[in-house]
Amino acid sequence: MITAHLTAQKASIRTLLLIGGLATVGAGILTLGLGMDTPWAPWERQSDTRFPPVLFTLATFMATVAFCSTTVIFHTLLKVLTNNPDMWWRGSGVLFLLTYGTYSFISQTFEAAIMLNILHLIVGLPALTLLPRACRN
């Protein structure tokens, strides 16, 4: 099973880096270019401290690649469990985007929620279309 996961990770590395690059450019445009709010910083629970825009832009790349790598593992597990892993993977991805998109409106400022939803669409749509194809082998 580990071999299947490693093979899928290796086959999808270019796609993961492409999606990470898209996310970084998108985060840079939204936060640095347009000056939109960033999410609250997780290390400061009791205050209104937000991610610094440059740190958020750089962290977006790492978070995107890490999260999408876990989705590659999830897709590999779905190959074992179902006959149609792409359908289940895309369905769960759309459900995640809807759930997190709704949650972000109650947990952030309105502007930060809009920015996060745009950013998740920048990551989610290419991931939903490109990653299953990269994991086919």
List the helices and strands and how they pair.
Layout lengths: L1 H10 L1 H21 L19 H29 L3 H23 L2 H25 L3
Helix pairs in contact: 1-3, 2-3, 2-5, 3-4, 3-5, 4-5
Strand content: under 5%
Q: Poorly predicted ranges (pLDDT <50, ≥5 residues)?
A: none
Q: Please summarize the sheet with the most strands.
A: none
**Terminal Cα separation, in Å?**
14 Å
The count of β-strands is 0
Determine the fraction of residues in helical runs and give it as a percent range: over 70%
Give the rounded overall mean pLDDT: 87
Q: What count of structural domains?
A: 1
| Element string (H = helix, E = strand) | HHHHH
Provide the structure class. Answer: mainly alpha
Number of helices: 5
Shape: elongated
Radius of gyration over C-alpha positions, nearest whole angstrom: 16 Å
Give an overview of the whole structure.
The protein is mainly alpha-helical and 137 residues long. The protein has one domain. It is 79% helix and 0% strand. It is built from 5 helices and no strands. α2 runs antiparallel to α3 and α2 packs antiparallel against α5. The longest helix is centred in the middle third of the chain and has 29 residues, at 53-81. It is elongated.
Give short descriptive properties of this protein.
137 residues, 5 helices, 0% strand, elongated
